[in-house]
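Renewal narrative, Specific Aim 1. Our central claim is that a sequence can be written position by position from structural information alone. The example that follows is taken directly from our test logs and has not been curated for this report. It begins with the structure tokens describing the chain, in the order in which they were read.
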């Protein structure tokens, strides 16, 4: 009896030991397979502002699953030393080639200027700079107030939008947005991203007239064509329009109500009776009712059913 119990316990221990060995073997095999599927990816160790050259202390290596590795990543931190970031890179964020300027690009403002564009600085004050709310990355329109004929005795200045959807590259000497965007700062100049043709227009407008920056929604890409405003058209007034919701697009804004013109009154016309020549049709006879003859003793009578 004791031998049977001992054999039963021994068999159970062998079974549980075999199951544990199989489980550990599978776990180790899965861990080795997962480790083989990991790739080394260079990530930012700290926040890297745009326009700065990357140094070895700013990057490190992390392991990512092969299926989750973004395109254009690097596996060696040495390949990134000396490259310039063209966007803000957050800590623990993979660094891709699209976030970096071309090799050999100098740091600073020149690294964030796209190919075919130029950076041009204009003077601003608290009014022109929209009370300091103009920050790097803001999209603005440029309005110039200019006198078309300065030699004439009658001054008749014109206000006209000359450039639209212009990106602000720098506010003063700052090419990055502040940590708290609600805080405004007073600057004396802003740097705009313009094409060579736009730079010519902007230079002439700054010398011959007075500039005014108009902030626009960053996702509003519509092209507004205006005829400009002079003194005569300014005094003609403007119709009131419903105020749109903050940040709403033009398609989401309420449409102004159009005034409905009253319909012209028409002379009252007396109704004319029209007699029809169609002869009246004779009334059709109604179908006969169903009746049943009932005999009660010696009496007979008919009962009609409706």
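The sequence written for that structure reads:
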């Amino acid at each position: 009896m004791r031998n049977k119990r001992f054999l039963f316990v021994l068999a159970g221990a062998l079974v549980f030991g075999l199951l544990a060995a199989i489980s550990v073997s599978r776990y180790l095999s899965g861990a080795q397979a997962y480790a083989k599927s990991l790739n080394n990816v260079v990530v930012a160790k700290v926040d890297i502002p745009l326009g700065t050259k990357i140094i070895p202390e700013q990057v490190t290596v992390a392991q990512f699953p092969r299926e989750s590795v973004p395109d254009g990543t690097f596996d060696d931190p040495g390949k990134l030393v000396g490259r310039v970031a063209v966007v803000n890179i957050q800590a623990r964020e993979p660094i891709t080639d699209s976030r970096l300027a071309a090799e050999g690009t100098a740091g600073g403002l020149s690294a964030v200027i796209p190919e075919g564009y130029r950076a041009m600085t204009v003077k601003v004050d608290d009014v022109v700079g929209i009370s300091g709310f103009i920050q790097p990355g803001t999209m603005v329109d440029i309005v110039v107030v200019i006198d078309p004929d300065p030699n004439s005795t009658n001054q008749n200045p014109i206000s006209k939008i000359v450039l639209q959807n212009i990106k602000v590259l720098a506010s003063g000497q700052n090419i990055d947005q502040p940590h708290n965007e609600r805080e405004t700062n007073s600057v004396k100049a802003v740097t705009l991203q313009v094409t060579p043709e736009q730079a010519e227009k902007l230079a002439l407008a700054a010398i011959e007239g007075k500039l005014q920056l108009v902030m626009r929604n960053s996702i509003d890409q519509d092209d507004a064509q205006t005829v400009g405003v002079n003194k005569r058209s300014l005094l003609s007034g403007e119709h009131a329009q419903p105020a749109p919701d903050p940040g709403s697009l033009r398609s989401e804004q309420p449409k102004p109500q159009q005034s409905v013109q009253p319909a012209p009154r028409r002379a009252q016309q007396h109704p004319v009776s029209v007699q029809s020549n169609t002869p009246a049709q004779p009334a059709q006879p109604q179908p006969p009712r169903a009746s049943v003859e009932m005999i009660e003793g010696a009496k007979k009578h008919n009962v009609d059913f409706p």
